[in-house]
Structures are given as C-alpha cells and as structure tokens.
Amino acid sequence: MAELTGKRIAMIVANNFEDVEATDPKSYLEQHGATVVVIGLNREPITGKKGAVLQPDKTIDEVSVDDFDALVIPGGGSPENLRIDDRAVAFARQFVESGKLVAAICHGPQLLISAGVLRGRTVTCVNKIRDDVKNAGANYVDQPVVIDGNLITSRVPADLPQFDEAIAKALTAVPTSAD
Asked: Could you give the domains of the chain?
C-alpha cells in the first residue's frame, strides 16, 4: 500500500452514524499517513448508532473543498441528518463537481441524492435506499465497491476492507492538495 502522507480527507458526519463506517476508514487512512478531518454541523460531539463518539475537528462553516483531497461520507442515520442541512448538501455537491474523490458507504449516497449529483452515475449502496438512488437517476448495481470516475460507493460494513482499499488506491493516483 502506497503512503498517503500529505493527503487530507474530509469526513462529514452527523449523529446516528454507523460507527464502523466512520471509525474503520478513518483508522485505515490515518494508518497509511493521511490526515482525516472530522467535519460536523457544529462543535458538539457526534454520537454513532452503537455509541462511538467523534469530536469534530472543524464545522461545516470552517471548511472548503479546496482544503481537501477527498470526502468520505459514512452511512447509518448520519446522511439523513446531513441532507436536510443546505451547507452539507452544498459541500457534497461542490466536492463531486470539483472532480475530487468522493467515497460514500451504505446510506451515504442519500447526501449525494440531495446534492443532485447521481444522475447518470453508476453506484451501489445499502439495498434499503437502492430505489432512491435509481429515482435520482443513478444506475444501481449490487457490488461490494463501485468506482465511477471520482465517485466510490459501497454497500455495508462487510464491504469496508474493499472500500478502504479503493479510497487509498484512488488517492495514490492523484496529487495532494498541497501540490
């Protein structure tokens, strides 16, 4: 695995996130040298479905797409809480439109649906929202990891090893934001 030193990853999270879908990619990317910045809607600690707590490093008002090389969107109830916040929706939309890497797992694509960026894209997600991504104009496929340009999607926690690896591999193929 190539080193990710110098890579800055935004991870946008709200309450009720699927714990392992945030903690696993965060740990994996940090172990390979990346800096993962947890972004919250405010400064309050963010609690996962199973009790994990993440402290935001920054709020949505303190960040810009230009500060990062990639965006990770964990699933669980977090995307449902993010998609009703216009700032989070705009941030996700700007990330996709910038051409920078965006990785979403499980319910994560809900934020991308609200951002209006899935039309014509091939994605996967937890089967509970497959009709939603189809209705947003996406081509849904049931695979552990789907890569469509700058978009990486996965279905469920069991897919995390492939999801993490796909993010790291994609990040080693692009220059850092500092370059």
From this structure: 8-172 (3.40.50.880)
